[in-house]
Amino acid sequence: MKFCWTTLRVKNLEESLKFYQEIVGLKVERKFSAGPGTEIVFLGDGETKVELIGNGTNQEVNMGEDISLGFEVGSVDEMFNVVKEKGIEIHSGPFQPNPHVKFFFVRDPNGLKIQFVENM
């Protein structure tokens, strides 16, 4: 298993992009629309990745609820079974929004959402 990215839902995508590019020094890896009013940007290279999600209609964010850490696994189905066998409650999923990715969420002991993702 390896660390994939940190997801941040942001109030203003352009301000956040400017900060992560100019201050942190991350480069835009990819940027795409994810539905009406929602845009996603992945920044970084190598194993350092930050995902910014901007929604022009939603200016409120809760950093405790809107942050998740994603970890790549070889098989979501296998990991799903392992998590259930360990008695960890599934927060949501599994989801497969396109043929290339499948994922689900659990919460760590502190309540932080953890995403296990299979890139297919």
Please characterize this protein's 3D structure.
This is Glyoxalase. It is a single chain. The protein has helices at residues 13-23, 76-85, and strands at residues 2-10, 28-33, 38-45, 48-55, 67-72, 90-98, 101-107, 113-119. A hairpin with a 5-residue loop joins β7 and β8. 18% of the residues are buried. The chain has 120 residues and is α+β, with helices and mostly antiparallel strands. The chain has a single domain, classed as 2,3-Dihydroxybiphenyl 1,2-Dioxygenase, domain 1 (Roll), CATH 3.10.180.10. The chain has 2 helices and 8 strands; from the N terminus they run βαββββαβββ. The chain has an 8-stranded mixed β-sheet.
Protein topology:
Elements: E1 2-10, H1 13-23, E2 28-33, E3 38-45, E4 48-55, E5 67-72, H2 76-85, E6 90-98, E7 101-107, E8 113-119
Parallel strand pairs: 1-4, 5-8
Antiparallel strand pairs: 1-5, 2-3, 3-4, 6-7, 7-8
Give a short summary of the structure.
With 120 residues, the chain is α+β, with helices and mostly antiparallel strands. The protein has helices at residues 13-23, 76-85; strands at residues 2-10, 28-33, 38-45, 48-55, 67-72, 90-98, 101-107, 113-119. The chain has a single domain (2-119), classed as Roll (2,3-Dihydroxybiphenyl 1,2-Dioxygenase, domain 1), CATH 3.10.180.
Give descriptors for this structure.
single chain, 120 residues, alpha+beta, 2,3-Dihydroxybiphenyl 1,2-Dioxygenase, domain 1, eight-stranded mixed beta sheet, 8 strands, 50% strand, VOC_core, Fosfomycin_Res_Enzymes, Glyas_Fos-R_dOase_dom, Glyoxalase
